[in-house]
Amino acid sequence: MKVFVAGSTGAIGRSLLPLLIEKRHDVVALVRTPARAKDVEALGARAAVADALDPDGLRAAIRRAAPEAVIHELTSLKGVTNFRRFDQTFALTNRFRTRTLDTMLAAARSIGVRRFIAQSYCGWPYAREGSPVKTEDDPLDPTPPASFRESLAAIRYLEDTIRQTRDIQAFALRYGNLYGPGTDISAEGTVADLVSRRKLPLFGSGAGVWSFIHVRDAASATVAAMSRGSPGIYNVVDDEPVPVNVWLPALANALGARPPRRLPAWVGALLLGDGGLSMMTLARGGSNAKSKRELAWQPSFASWRRGFVEGLG
Questions:
Q1: Quick check: helix, strand or coil at residue 7?
Q2: Helices (H) and strands (E) in the chain, counts
Q3: pLDDT in tens, 153-196
Q4: Domains (ranges, CATH) in the chain?
Q5: Average of per-residue pLDDT values in the chain
Q6: 35-39 LR contacts (CB < 8 Å, sep 24+)
Q7: CA 237, CA 184: separation in Å to the nearest integer?
Q8: Do 240 and 304 touch, CB atoms closer than 8 A?
Q9: How far, in whole angstroms, is CA 2 from its chain's centroid?
Q10: φ, ψ of residue 149 in degrees (nearest 5)
Q11: Rounded CA gap, 193 and 203, in Å?
């Protein structure tokens, strides 16, 4: 199948391209500059040079490629640590999830693309009540923290658009918290650095539940969605949602660092804001049952426990 990949040089993209090529797909990868073309060509893909923020250029690139499937992995997520200014930090990603999504879908429709896959997120967007582990049918947060509202609105927009798309088989893959090469939770990543220097404390109860996924497993689920499953929303996470007060000390141990400091919730509210503290204390994880069933997919790291030890590099 001929596939157009936007976000080809990001953490998921760098794992995704080799898997698509291994499956004998004909891959055209979007890059912003000719210099980046060499990166994707070295992996076996052909490069399409265009700025994803230029609607005319992006539409033209997709039409020239004439793909049967389009994969939208565009984000700007690396190095996010300021939770008090979360929406400002995510402004570009929010644009990718709204205006750029519309541009790509319109271009896909104009040339008869069969499948369209877009990146979403599994974790803090879920309502902070009820079960600690949510399915795709559970509601998103009706009253998110103030600093997270624009980012949740962008996620809602993306997922609502995917659900309402009828003329293309459209998927939104809700990746969990990514770890592994090229992510913030990697041997050289921002989070690992903070944990190693004991700059990421446990605040309050630390009872917020997170779901993780190794970056290569996120890529393998994306490849599975190329040919399997009914259109809709899928949680792409491992088998073990986990509270912060369990995974954060385990990550420190995997990195050979001292355990994280413990600080009261009111300090977390001052340092992280309400949204950051909510992620530490109230967040919900996700179930991967639908993805495993409908995409016939299994994560190679079934649990972050092994992944943190073997998969960070």
A1: coil
A2: 13, 15
A3: 999 999 999 999 999 999 999 999 999 999 999 988 999 999 99
A4: 2-178+213-237+286-300 (3.40.50.720)
A5: 96
A6: 36/9, 39/9
A7: 17
A8: yes
A9: 23
A10: -65, -45
A11: 18
Q: Which residues of 202-238 are buried (b: 16+ CB within 10 A; e: fewer)?
A: bbbebebbbbbbbbbbbbbbbbbbbeebebebbbbbb
pTM assigned to the model: 0.96
**192's tokens:** 């690992």
Phi, psi of 271 (to 5 degrees): -80, -40
Tokens of 90: 């995510």
| Pairing outcome for strands 242-243 and 209-210 | antiparallel
Instruction: Say if CB 224 and CB 115 are below 8 A apart.
Output: no
From 75, 63, 71, select the one nearest 3 (Cα to Cα).
71
Token output for 146: 């103030």
CB 75 within 8 Å of CB 93? yes
CA 157 – CA 267 distance, rounded (Å): 33
Task: For residue 84, give the amino acid letter.
Answer: R
Question: Per-residue DSSP letters for 74-129?
Answer: ----TT---GGGHHHHTHHHHHIIIIIHHHHHHHHHHTT-SEEEEEEE-STTB-SS
Secondary structure letter of residue 146 according to DSSP: G
Whole-number pLDDT of residue 82: 76
Q: What is the pLDDT of residue 218?
A: 98
Predicted confidence (pLDDT) at residue 80 exceeds the cutoff of 90: no
Q: List the beta bridge partners of residue 209.
A: 243
* Rounded CA separation 104/256 (Å): 44
